[in-house]
């Protein structure tokens, strides 16, 4: 054996090894422990027995290799039937399991932004700020050209270029930090305009299995593929917009990256604007309810710009929605939002409900405008162009078409009324819940305004309870002037409409309005005067048979006093309301006379119109208003002081007499920061020459003054002569 080892060692190449290394390798080869020893351990070669912990540690260092079991998938086949019965058949198929990503790949995937930012920052190393800006503009222009090319290709031929939408949507993931924000904004807006152009005017429904199995023409198959691709890309685009908004909200909550917060906010604003445009432009298309669900919670967002965009979008949606389907879906989501947040929402959320088009008159107009107008042939055309048999068939056909049109119009009208009724029920449910549970909420003014707006549609079954609630609110003293006016308007709108048959005298509400009138002045908003004019029309003009003369004269007197303390457009509206009251109650001309009618004195501070003795006063305010700076106010004051005649020199022109107080208020307002008509500037107070005092007197007084002055000159002593006489004596 020793000879064999020596022969083996001599056969090794020794030209690349030193003698010391060769000797060491020879000694190690003679020891068996060199082969079996764990090279990772640092203990001695023959160190004795190891401890149990060292043994466990050595096992832990050995890499684990788990035997991979092949997963099998069971496939069920068609069963076999024999004499014993049905025998199920199945087979197994091996499923190759994909290798799991290593930990290093996961660590790298967690930080893509850092690598991108490092790669982007390395491009700008050594560049001046001007060169960086120039490079950024160059990149941005290239992106703009690519976006424009893709968009033009899609719009020109959407059937064959649907893949370009996917490519354009991929640019929403722009990774270059220098142009990422700008490119994403441009892509979002471009896709919005593209979908507005290529989306059809109908809703695309998914095909059933039977429809897919049927063979169709090539054009039909191409149309189906286009519609399927359009719906899928539109869905992905909406998901991208939603994710952009979620990223902004998440960053806002974490507060971890304050530097990027402004960029996320600007991206979210563009995303909200795109969703708002699609909400208005495509109310008939797919995923419209999904857009509503995304935008409704943003109406209550603390960011003012985002919430205002959403509120304005829903106001426009309510105004342009003639069918009522979109309005119903939106109102349902708003009701759920208000209830889930326990009525802690911004007033602007409920303010949008005032834009709902739920009025019977507008519905009839919409039906007449939308109903197709069919032109039928006259008898002359029939005799000229048709034979006898053809005329007979044509007559029967036209009769059938008329019946179909009438049936279609009736069905659409009933459907619209049903949708509007359901929508209004949800709105009133929200209002009544707030009146019951959150009377001290900031939503109360909006609720009262909404009740006043839709009061003519309230069911009379709720009127008694609503009247008690409103009366308690006014008597509590916690409401502002506008809130009280909304309560009064709600009550009298109901009484002048469906509640006209009810035998109720709401004297307390008359006293409340009479008391509020003295609180208004030129510093209050004009909207308060608008509510007052609406209330006066419902309380005095429409209910003139239920109002006493004493009450009417008290209101005319107090309104005349109010006209002195408000702006000129408010004065015109109030004087026009007084004119309508004087026409409804002709005996109000007692106020134009100085004579006393009955006993007692006028009590202007008393807030009870029935007992203030208004018949014993006069409208002296009209004399002051005849010197008003506005010409229309002067004309109304002269007209009322002469008893509001319909003919003669003191009568009003047709333009003024035919307009309502609200129309006059709007026409002469200061919306454009200019008077209508222009007001002449005041004359200059500077005098060109001094005026002698006696020229201000009449002729007789001037003669008397000159006579007195002449007597004074004759009797005036000569002090100079007296002085010379005294010096001479000395």
From TrEMBL:
<dbReference type="InterPro" id="IPR016024">
    <property type="entry name" value="ARM-type_fold"/>
</dbReference>
<feature type="compositionally biased region" description="Acidic residues">
    <location>
        <begin position="101"/>
        <end position="118"/>
    </location>
</feature>
<dbReference type="InterPro" id="IPR011501">
    <property type="entry name" value="Noc3_N"/>
</dbReference>
<dbReference type="GO" id="GO:0005730">
    <property type="term" value="C:nucleolus"/>
</dbReference>
<dbReference type="Pfam" id="PF07540">
    <property type="entry name" value="NOC3p"/>
</dbReference>
<dbReference type="InterPro" id="IPR016903">
    <property type="entry name" value="Nucleolar_cplx-assoc_3"/>
</dbReference>
<keyword id="KW-0539">Nucleus</keyword>
<feature type="region of interest" description="Disordered">
    <location>
        <begin position="92"/>
        <end position="130"/>
    </location>
</feature>
<feature type="coiled-coil region">
    <location>
        <begin position="379"/>
        <end position="415"/>
    </location>
</feature>
<dbReference type="GO" id="GO:0006270">
    <property type="term" value="P:DNA replication initiation"/>
</dbReference>
<dbReference type="Pfam" id="PF03914">
    <property type="entry name" value="CBF"/>
</dbReference>
<comment type="similarity">
    <text>Belongs to the CBF/MAK21 family.</text>
</comment>
<dbReference type="GO" id="GO:0003682">
    <property type="term" value="F:chromatin binding"/>
</dbReference>
<keyword id="KW-0175">Coiled coil</keyword>
<feature type="domain" description="CCAAT-binding factor">
    <location>
        <begin position="485"/>
        <end position="637"/>
    </location>
</feature>
<protein>
    <recommendedName>
        <fullName>Nucleolar complex protein 3 homolog</fullName>
    </recommendedName>
</protein>
<feature type="domain" description="Nucleolar complex-associated protein 3 N-terminal">
    <location>
        <begin position="143"/>
        <end position="237"/>
    </location>
</feature>
<dbReference type="InterPro" id="IPR005612">
    <property type="entry name" value="CCAAT-binding_factor"/>
</dbReference>
């Amino acid at each position: 054996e020793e000879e064999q080892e020596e022969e083996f060692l001599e056969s090794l190449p020794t030209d690349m090894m030193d003698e010391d290394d060769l000797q060491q390798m020879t000694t190690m080869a003679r020891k068996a422990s060199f082969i079996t020893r764990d090279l990772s351990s640092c203990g001695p070669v023959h160190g004795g027995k190891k401890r149990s912990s060292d043994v466990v540690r050595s096992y832990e260092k050995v890499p684990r290799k788990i035997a991979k079991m092949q997963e099998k998938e069971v496939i069920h086949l068609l069963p076999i039937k024999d004499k014993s019965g049905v025998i199920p058949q199945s087979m197994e198929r091996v499923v190759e399991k994909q290798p799991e990503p290593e930990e290093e790949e996961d660590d790298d995937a967690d930080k893509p932004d850092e690598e991108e930012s490092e790669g982007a920052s390395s491009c700008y190393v050594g560049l001046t700020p001007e060169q960086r800006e120039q490079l950024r503009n160059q990149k941005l222009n290239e992106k703009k050209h690519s976006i424009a090319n893709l968009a033009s290709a899609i719009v020109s031929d959407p059937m064959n270029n649907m893949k370009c939408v996917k490519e354009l949507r991929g640019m929403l993931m722009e990774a270059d930090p220098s142009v990422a924000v700008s490119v994403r904004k441009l892509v979002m807006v471009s896709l919005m305009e593209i979908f507005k152009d290529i989306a059809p005017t109908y809703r695309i429904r998914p095909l059933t299995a039977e429809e897919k199995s049927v063979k169709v023409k090539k054009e039909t198959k191409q149309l189906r593929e286009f519609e399927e691709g359009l719906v899928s890309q539109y869905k992905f685009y909406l998901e991208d917009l939603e994710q952009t908004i979620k990223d902004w909200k998440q960053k806002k909550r974490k507060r971890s990256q304050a530097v990027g917060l402004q960029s996320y906010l600007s991206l979210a604003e563009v995303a909200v604007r795109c969703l708002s445009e699609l909400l208005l432009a495509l109310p008939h298309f797919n995923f419209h309810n999904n857009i509503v669900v995304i935008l409704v919670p943003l109406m209550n967002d603390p960011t003012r710009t985002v919430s205002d965009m959403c509120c304005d979008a829903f106001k426009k949606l309510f105004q342009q929605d003639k069918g009522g389907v979109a309005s119903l879906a939106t109102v349902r989501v708003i009701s759920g939002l208000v209830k889930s947040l326990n009525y802690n929402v911004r007033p602007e959320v409920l303010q949008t409900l005032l834009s709902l088009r739920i009025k019977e008159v507008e519905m009839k107009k919409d039906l007449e405008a939308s109903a197709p107008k069919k032109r039928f042939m006259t008898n002359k055309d029939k005799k000229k162009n048709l034979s006898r048999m053809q005329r007979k068939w044509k007559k029967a056909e036209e009769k059938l078409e008329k019946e179909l049109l009438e049936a279609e119009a009736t069905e659409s009208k009933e459907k619209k009324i049903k949708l509007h009724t359901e929508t209004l029920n949800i709105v009133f449910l929200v209002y009544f819940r707030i009146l019951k549970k959150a009377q001290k909420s900031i939503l109360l003014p909006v609720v009262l305004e909404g009740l006043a707006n839709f009061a003519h549609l309230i069911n009379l079954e709720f009127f008694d309870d609503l009247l008690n609630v409103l009366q308690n609110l006014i008597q509590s003293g916690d409401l502002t002037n506008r809130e009280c006016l909304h309560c009064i308007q709600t009550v009298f709108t109901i009484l002048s409409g469906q509640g006209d048959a009810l035998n109720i005298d709401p004297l307390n509400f008359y006293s409340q309005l009479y008391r509020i009138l003295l609180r208004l002045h030129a510093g209050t908003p004009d909207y308060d005067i608008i509510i007052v004019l609406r209330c006066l029309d419902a309380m005095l003009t429409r209910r003139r048979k239920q109002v006493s003369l004493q009450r009417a004269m008290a209101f005319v007197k107090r309104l005349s006093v109010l006209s002195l303390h408000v702006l000129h457009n408010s004065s015109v509206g109030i004087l026009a309301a007084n004119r309508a009251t004087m026409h409804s109650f002709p005996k109000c001309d007692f106020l134009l006379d100085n004579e006393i009618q009955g006993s007692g004195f006028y009590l202007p501070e008393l807030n009870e119109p029935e007992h203030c003795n208004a018949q014993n006063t006069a409208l002296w305010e009209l004399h002051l208003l005849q010197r008003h700076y506005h010409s229309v106010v002067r004309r109304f004051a002269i007209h009322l002081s002469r008893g509001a005649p319909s003919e003669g020199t003191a009568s009003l022109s047709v333009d003024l007499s035919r307009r309502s107080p609200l129309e006059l208020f709007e026409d002469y307002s200061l919306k454009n920061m200019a008077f209508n008509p222009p007001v002449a500037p005041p004359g200059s107070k500077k005098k060109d020459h001094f005026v002698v005092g006696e020229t201000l007197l009449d002729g007789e007084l001037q003669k008397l003054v000159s006579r007195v002055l002449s007597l004074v000159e004759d009797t005036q002593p000569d002090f100079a002569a007296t002085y010379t006489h005294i010096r001479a004596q000395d």
